[in-house]
Structure formats: structure tokens, C-alpha cells
């Protein structure tokens, strides 16, 4: 992906460059699937746990369920954040629903059977893009857990339909930039999160103008940038899954 012209960013990368992305599979060996994902200084531990049975409201569906929980360690940020001991707050719930929707979009729940896969995404260090990193790493953890079911003969075929990844894109000083870190996110005129599959189909687009409204041409340009990056990310996921 070619970087556009403009002042260098904090890490010296171009406007259209992802941060350094890495995946460490098996980071939590007791889980059926796990992945420690890093986008620059943002690091999220994703674990997938397989449980027999489904929620009571799901029992008549003849299909399984995939859900997600999200949390941030107290010192994942520059100053300590209190733990959510009284239950998840509104922002946390919204992120959990986003991760769950994204992972279900690429899972055949009928093939999964009467099982629930819980994907826990715990932010170890936050520097912007924690929800997009959670989706991208959570997909790897989920894929490993689903493959474990297949290897054990508990499902007749893989419940995985595709891969899914997510990335942020925005406008900063009227320039489109990819994969915003925390400092860029705070200053951006537009901040958008895009979730898409390995086939390039969209799962969710969340975009907000923080100042001046933005036009259709700018929206299309940002979507194109995000989808190119997601194609790169899902290719990395695919290569990783083939090696594991």
C-alpha cells in the first residue's frame, strides 16, 4: 500500500500505512484458541472458550452462538482506570456487541451445534484502535477454537465461513490516514471504524465527524483505504492459520 504525501506521523509511517501488526498464537494455552495481537503499541489478548450448550433464549434455534466480552486492564492506559466491578459500562457493552456481531458474521452457527464460543478480548496496552485490534485478533482465536472442534471430530465440517478484520481510518488535517493511534484519534476531524470479511464484504461501518461534516467522496476514499488494509490483514490471518 503506497503512502500518500504529508508530514510524517509519530512513528514515521506514511498516511496509508498500518502500524506494525503481529499475532502470537497460543498466548493463553488453556483456552481452545488464543492470540495476542499487537497494532503498534496497542496489545490485546484474545481467548476463545468453547462451552457446551447455548443461552436459554437460543435453545430453539438448532444452532450455536458466538459472543464476546471486552475489558481493559487498569494500567492499559497512561493513568489507572478503575475496574468495572459493578458491571460493564455503556462503551464496553457497545464494543462487546460489535466484536460479537463481527465474529458471528463469519461463523456457521448451525454447523457449530449446541455450543457457545465466548471470545474474551482483554486490552493489555491501549494506544488507539482497541476494538479493531480485538476483532482482528479475536477472529484468529475463534478460528483456532473452531479448528480444535473439527480436529476432535465434534463437528462434521469447519464452522468457519470466512475471516474478518477491522481497522480505523480518518481525516486528520484534511488528509485521509489509516490506523489511527490515540494521539491521532483525539485530533482527527473524522474517525471511522470499518469491519469487513476476507471477501471484502462489509460487516459494519462506524463513522463520525468531530467537526465539519464530510462529503461522499471523502467517505468513499476512506472506505477504499480501509478495505485495502483489511484485505492485507485477512491475508496475514489466513497465512497464520495455515502455519498453525
Structural topology:
Blueprint (H helix, E strand, L loop, with lengths): L20 E5 L7 E7 L2 E11 L12 E8 L17 H15 L4 H4 L2 E11 L4 H22 L12 E9 L2 E4 L3 H6 L2 E8 L4 E8 L6 H28 L1
Parallel strand pairs: 4-5
Antiparallel strand pairs: 1-2, 2-3, 3-5, 6-7, 6-8, 8-9
Helix pairs in contact: 1-3, 3-5
Briefly say what this structure is.
The protein has 244 residues and is of the alpha+beta class. The chain is 31% helix and 29% strand. The protein has helices at residues 90-104, 109-112, 130-151, 182-187, 216-243; strands at residues 21-25, 33-39, 42-52, 65-72, 115-125, 164-172, 175-178, 190-197, 202-209.
If you had to describe this structure to a student in words, what would you say it looks like?
The chain is α+β, with helices and mostly antiparallel strands. Helices cover 31% and strands 29% of the residues. The protein has helices at residues 90-104, 109-112, 130-151, 182-187, 216-243; strands at 21-25, 33-39, 42-52, 65-72, 115-125, 164-172, 175-178, 190-197, 202-209. Strands 1-2-3-5-4 form a five-stranded mixed sheet. It starts with 20 loop residues before the first strand and ends with a helix. The mean pLDDT is 93.
Keyword list:
alpha+beta; 244 residues; 5 helices; four-stranded antiparallel β-sheet; globular; five-stranded mixed β-sheet; 29% strand
| Strand composition percent | 25-35%
Q: List SSEs in N-to-C order.
A: EEEEHHEHEEHEEH
Find the count of extended strands (DSSP E, 2+ residues).
Answer: 9
Show unreliable segments.
Answer: none
**How many separate helices?**
5
Query: Portion of residues in helices?
Result: 25-40%
What class do helices, strands and sheet pairing give? alpha+beta
Spatial strand sequence of the major β-sheet: 1-2-3-5-4
* Largest sheet, strands/sense/barrel: 5 strands, mixed
Radius of gyration: 18 Å
Mean pLDDT: 93
Query: How does the overall form come out from the CA principal axes?
Result: globular
- End-to-end Cα distance, whole Å, is 27 Å
